[in-house]
Design goal:
Number of strands: 22
Number of helices: 27
Structural class: alpha+beta
Length: 814
């Protein structure tokens, strides 16, 4: 019996090639897309789960609440936090701190500019990275030691055994290689190949860094004892801040510590999808992205399932006489149900095999597209494999439900007389399924248009400065040049004919480490925090910043030089400053009215001499922050910004390298284009947007594939009707217009469903952007018109073929 069912199913698939192809291809493409999306989601959720014994490891983070500013999250934390938690909280079994630093590594005469990780000596006990050579117990037994990754060991020492070899840091700290760990995989928050103990002289941590409670640098990790209450640990960590952070930790901010700082504890394996995007060692993901792609995968599979059901019900009406003959010959309803369901499930299983073949063929290209080494292992990923087959079987059961349960139950006599199933409800069902398909497709299309428009808008927004052709140099924490030498370096670069200008600053756009101070206008009790940026007077010209009122700072005016020696990044009393328009507005001044006014930074009175346009140093991701610019010549500013002349890039870069070697011969130069930092801000969004657009296009393709098959069926069923119409004078264009209108109605209904739903979700999504596009009707009209045009193009060939047919042949049909 089952052999007969199987052979019948194969014959039906072979006999109706078009419908079989559409069903199998549509479901296969949808399942392949869903598989790719699930592989991406699995990779996102696999971050750091491979690290052994990390279930009780947490990253200590901080929420900051500055007056007049929205709350922010700092993934970095003060260095003394970890030791204090270990000493004061019995729930903390171990702690470690990671401080990334930029250094020059030397092996013989070779120099390498590297980002190394200064960690606590017991780092490998808290985060158990696997060793290839050496061990965690002996790695940092001596302070002047270093642990390398496999790739770093090959880079520095080739194929020679690296253990016991010397590696010199910053030309003055020889370290002995005591261990080699496996290369860190891509799915980890950690980003390092060179680890040194922070007890080493090579670590760039000063004694102040180790004791400052309001200097956030590096990352603190703690291992909690089994059974520790996380909420209780967080509460007691909050009390640690209250005890150790003084009331005036930020200049002039006379607030309790718990009013400014709140402790956060994030599970080690959850960091990537929760807070790493806010400033981790590597770009983080987000649960929003995960949920979004889950929804896309589900919708694509639903569209394919709707296709399957639609064509299955359409073809079922053509098999009414077959079913009747089988019943006349003694077939029972149960046998017919099994036959129809078996045919549908077999078709779906063929689609699964094709889908898996597509995944195998396209997976290398997909890996290159998303930039990750993702693989599909059928055995180890058995839940995914099983899920794919279950979805296919469910699709087959749903697609075969109508012919199996409905057609198998009608009366043979009536059907053999009319050759029709007598089931008018199937037409309504097909219409509903087409409407749902296109509603999903139109909604996804609108979302794709809005996402791409928002990304383009964020990239093209006026940032308040020009980042083209700017090279950023330095950023080393360890002093490379004195302040005087830095000025000489800038002047020499500025004199080069291939360079338009050079300047120094405490930070550069797109990688700002904000320093904040409390500011207020005399006589106004309103206080708020402002970002403090120490710049040389040349910087506004280098960045082409826009002056709205007053003037820029100048080296020739003594009051423009803030000669404070109290602490770094602090403006001196009586100094002149420049502010941006956001700061002026918060003070209650217009740009012109702010010039000459005196304000307070902490308890120091300073004078505003200029107001510039807001500079969006974090691009368009965050709202403008009130900013104060000042110049303290006594402070070493270790970031250099150099604007190159267009058309002279190679010569200018050579001049930069040559001048650097003259001033810092033992330090490898670190330079990069500012445009590269700008592009990195949008790299993840653009990659996810491209994936989103690709899968939306595939969803529309699958929907059109089903519409094409349904149009072929409809044209076939209405052949005699069209012949009669032509006999009574209908022209070809009249018939084409009739068929196009029939298929336009479901698309128009789909627009009515998709538009309000898409508006609701996209409106909420755009609310998360400080600078966002207007959600105007153009996106909805464009998606709707494109969907209608695609529907017309899909069915036009069938409409033209039937409309041009000889009416004599049409009347002979059936």
């Amino acid at each position: 019996m089952f052999r007969n069912y199987f052979l019948t199913a194969i014959r039906n698939i072979a006999r109706h090639k078009l419908y079989s192809f559409i069903n199998i291809a549509g479901l296969a493409v949808a399942l392949a897309c869903a598989t790719f999306i699930i592989l991406f989601i699995e990779d996102e959720m696999s971050f750091d789960k491979w690290v052994p014994d990390s279930a009780n490891v947490y990253r200590a983070e901080i929420s900051l609440f500055f007056p007049g500013q929205p709350s922010t999250i700092s993934t970095s934390s003060p260095f003394p936090l970890g030791p204090a938690m270990k000493a004061e909280l019995p729930e903390v079994a171990a702690e470690t701190h990671i401080t990334p630093q930029n250094s020059t590594l030397s092996v013989g005469e070779r120099q390498f500019s590297e980002r190394i990780m200064a960690v606590d000596p017991d780092f490998f006990f808290v985060i158990a990275l696997p060793f290839v050579e050496g061990s965690a117990a002996n790695a940092f037994a001596q302070p002047e030691s270093v642990v390398l990754s496999q790739s770093a060991a090959r880079k520095y020492f080739g194929d020679v055994d690296p253990l016991g070899k010397l590696l010199t840091v910053d030309a003055k700290h020889p370290l002995t290689v005591t261990g080699v760990i496996r290369d860190l995989p891509h799915n980890t928050q950690l980003n390092g190949s060179v680890f040194v103990p922070n007890t080493s002289k090579a670590a760039q941590l000063t004694s102040d860094d180790r004791t400052q409670w309001f200097e956030f640098q590096g990352y603190t990790y703690v291992r909690l004892a089994p059974g520790a209450d996380l909420a209780w640990v967080r509460q007691k960590t909050q009390q640690i801040f209250f005890r150790h952070i003084p009331l005036d930790a930020v200049t002039g901010m006379h607030l309790r510590a718990d009013q400014v700082v709140q402790a956060r504890m994030v599970r080690f394996a959850d960091v990537h999808l929760t807070s790493d995007k806010l400033g981790g060692m590597k770009p983080g993901g987000s649960w929003t992205t995960v949920y979004g792609f889950v929804a896309i995968a589900t919708l694509i599979v639903l569209i394919a399932c709707f296709n399957f059901m639609n064509l299955a019900t359409a073809r079922a009406t053509m098999r009414a006489r077959e079913v009747s003959l089988r019943k006349v010959m003694g077939a029972r309803r149960r046998q017919l149900v099994v036959q129809f369901l078996g045919e549908s499930v077999l078709t779906a299983l063929l689609a699964v095999l094709l889908a898996l073949a597509l995944v195998e063929v396209l997976l290398p290209a997909y890996d290159g597209f998303i930039g990750r080494p993702i693989e599909l292992h059928y055995i180890s990923d058995w839940p995914l494999t099983l899920g794919i087959f279950l979805v296919a079987v469910l699709s087959g059961l749903l697609g075969g439900a109508y012919p199996a349960l409905v057609l198998s139950g009608f009366r043979p006599a009536a059907t053999l007389k009319t050759n029709a199933s007598g089931q008018s409800g199937s037409g309504l069902l097909r219409t509903v399924l087409v409407v749902l398909q296109f509603a999903i497709s139109i909604g996804l299309g609108i979302a794709a248009l809005v996402v791409f428009a928002q990304i383009r808008y964020a990239r093209d927004i006026d940032l308040g400065f020009n980042h083209d052709n700017i090279v950023v140099i330095g950023g080393n924490s360890d002093p490379v040049m004195t302040s005087a030498a830095s000025d000489s370096f800038v002047h020499m670069l500025d004199a080069d004919p291939n360079i338009s200008g050079a300047a120094r600053s405490g930070a550069v756009p797109f990688e700002m480490n904000d320093s904040r101070s409390n500011v207020s206008a005399p006589g106004n009790p309103q206080q708020f925090t402002a970002r403090m940026i120490d710049i040389s007077p040349e910087l506004p010209a280098v960045y082409d910043m826009k002056l709205l009122a007053g003037r820029f700072l100048s080296r020739d005016r003594g009051a423009d030089l803030s000669n404070s020696l109290d602490r770094e990044n602090e403006v001196a009393s009586g100094a002149n400053i420049v502010i941006d328009t956001t700061a002026a507005r918060m003070f209650g001044f217009s740009p012109a009215g702010a010039v000459g006014k005196t304000i307070k930074i902490g308890d120091k009175h300073v004078t505003i001499v200029g107001v510039i346009q807001d500079a969006l140093f974090h691009a368009a991701k965050d709202a403008p922050i009130a900013t104060v610019y000042y110049f303290n010549p006594n402070i070493r500013l270790d970031s250099f910004s150099v604007r190159l002349k267009g058309g002279h890039i190679p010569a200018a870069l050579a001049a930069i390298d040559r001048t650097w070697r003259r001033f810092a011969p033992t330090v490898a130069i670190r330079r990069h284009f500012l445009d590269d930092l700008f592009d990195k801000l949008f790299a993840a969004d653009e990659k996810e947007g491209a994936m989103f657009g690709l899968f939306v296009g595939i969803a529309i393709f699958v929907a059109c594939l089903g519409l094409f098959g349904l149009a072929a069926f409809t044209a076939e069923r209405r052949t005699k009707e069209i012949g009669v119409r032509k006999v009574f004078g209908a022209r070809t264009r009249d018939v084409v217009r009739l068929l196009l209108w029939q298929f336009s109605i479901p698309v128009l209904l789909a627009n009515a469903i998709a538009w309000p739903i898409a508006w609701y979700y996209l409106h909420n999504w755009l609310e998360g952007y400080a600078f966002r596009i207007e959600l105007g009707p153009i996106y909805f009209l464009a998606a709707g018109l494109v969907a209608l045009l695609i529907a017309w193009v899909t069915v036009i060939s069938h409409a033209m073929r039937v409309a041009r047919a000889n009416p004599v042949q049409a009347l002979r049909y059936e």
